[in-house]
Design brief:
This protein is α+β, with helices and mostly antiparallel strands. The chain has a single domain, classed as Aminopeptidase, CATH 3.40.630.30. The protein contains 4 helices and 5 strands. The longest helix is centred in the middle third of the chain and has 15 residues.
Length: about 150
């Protein structure tokens, strides 16, 4: 297996839609294309793809935002998904390392990621990479806006 990291491109849309479904967010190719366009147009966001001989097999989505309470920026790993055929083979670790490198290059002082509570295996993965679960000291609140 010779995985190469590269930017996600428009030609990846069908596989990207499938990967989002594997992550638990089923979507259509049309919606995946619209989302990809938003990411590609945002200078503070990167989509890093894992490629196996021309096939997209994983994606890390990084967004960088300035901090007001600290000097610097924060990187947020918004999504990480590896095709189920490639899991537990180092692909996710490579994607996270690349996202962290990009975050550092963009001036980030810290990196954060959220994960649903039922994904305990994923939580162990992040802990092995040095991430700390801070839920006992920090809450996360979400409000969804109605769509048309």
């Amino acid at each position: 297996m010779d995985i190469q990291l590269r930017p996600v491109q428009h030609q990846d849309v069908p596989v990207l839609a499938d990967l989002l479904g594997q992550l638990g967010y089923p979507t259509t190719e049309t919606a995946a294309r619209e989302r990809l366009d938003l990411w590609l147009d945002d200078p503070a966001s990167w989509l890093i793809g894992a490629d196996d001989d021309g096939e997209l097999v994983g994606v890390a989505a990084l967004h960088v935002m300035p901090l007001l309470q600290l000097t610097g920026k924060a990187g947020r790993l918004v999504a990480l998904v590896v095709d189920e055929r490639y899991r537990s083979r180092g692909v996710g670790q490579s994607l996270v390392a690349a996202a962290e490198d990009q975050a550092r290059a963009a001036g980030c002082a810290k990196m954060e990621v959220t994960s649903r509570r039922h994904r305990t295996r994923t939580h162990e993965f992040y802990k092995l990479l040095g991430y700390e679960d801070i839920c006992s000291s920090s809450a996360r609140f979400v409000k969804l806006f109605p769509t048309d």
